[in-house]
Amino acid sequence: MQSLEPYLAEHPFLKGLEPNHLKILAGCASNVQFDVGQFILREGEEANNFYIIRHGKVAIELFAAERGAITIQTIGAGEILGWSWLIPPYQWRFDARAIEITRAIALDGKCLRTKCEQDHNLGYELLKRFAHVIALRLEATRLQLSDVYGVHP
Amino acid sequence: MLPNPFHIQRLQKETYDTFTVELTPTNSTNTFLFSAGQFNMLYVFGVGEVPISISGDPARTETIKHTARAVGTVTRALQKLKSGDMLGVRGPFGSHWPVEESVGNDVVIIAGGIGLSPLRPVLYQLIAQRKKYKKIALLYGVRTPEDLLYKRELEQWRGRFDIEVKITVDTATGDWCGDVGVVTTLIRRVQFDPLHAMAMICGPEVMMRFTIKELQNCGVGNERIFISMERNMKCGIGLCGHCQCGPTFICKDGPVFRYDRIKEFFGKREI
Q: Cβ of A148 and B17 within 8 Å?
């Protein structure tokens, strides 16, 4: 079976990671596929994975009883899905659903959490990279909330 | 400074508050030449004058198109005009997008809301001479799917294999199944060569500020980023000073600027 290590090494999110750390990540990685409409994460459920999207499109949704599923953001190839595996209480805050056939690499967060506790250098590297993703998403959300295209007399 | 009389040939509704007005000169032998990115001062007789970007095809010189949003006294009056009504036109004014300078490069067009209107002429030109350019990408962000301009053309452009069109909305409504999120998030989803790409941006200044930052993060140099600025333009020829931004006049030196030439003043709160 072909190792996922070369792919992980090339991915912008993991680029520059130490080879021994990449090996650990590859040991926790597996290929997954989701059909259109299939839930990848569900709000409130235990967060034990994160995903590197290789192909397809995923909607991050919030369910409101009176409105149904509200799409907050869509993410696609090359992007990262899920960081709740890293932050207690390790539960998904939102739903994520494939809106196109989606292929991804799933990384076992539970396994990685243990590895990060054992190797703080790996933990710090991953935390830095996730902090960057979270900061970009926060910036985008703030911009989205500010209604820049609206008429503001 | 005197406006030329034009007839309204057609007024087309684009969205609930945005419309495109197609004008023909009253003297049918006249043609109207302009460059992509320029604007005209449109005079609704008895109401006032307003600067509006030209949104039509530069190759079609017998009519001019402008897309406007009905938000002020003049644009609301403009929206109420009918075909056959007369309008005063001064122009074209201002600088243009670097369409010729982009030959041989990737071209990334990033529009927000009604900012697509002054960029549409660029797309017409790029498509007409498609072979002269490498990758062409249009990244377009709007508030909701109902705010999308030029829906039919967007569909046509999306259907082409030689242009990458990505559209995102801030808020998904109805049966929208496209992207949701701000336009800046689309930049990393297209593959282009940052060292040989020209970026043209038009939209609200906040959107342009964050877009520039993201392009810079991707490795695009300031000398390859072009923006279209908007200020209170009155005379159109750099005399009245209403649209002054630092040492430049948006109406005369702009509205299209190479970013490295305006960056000292762009986004400065005091200006």
A: no
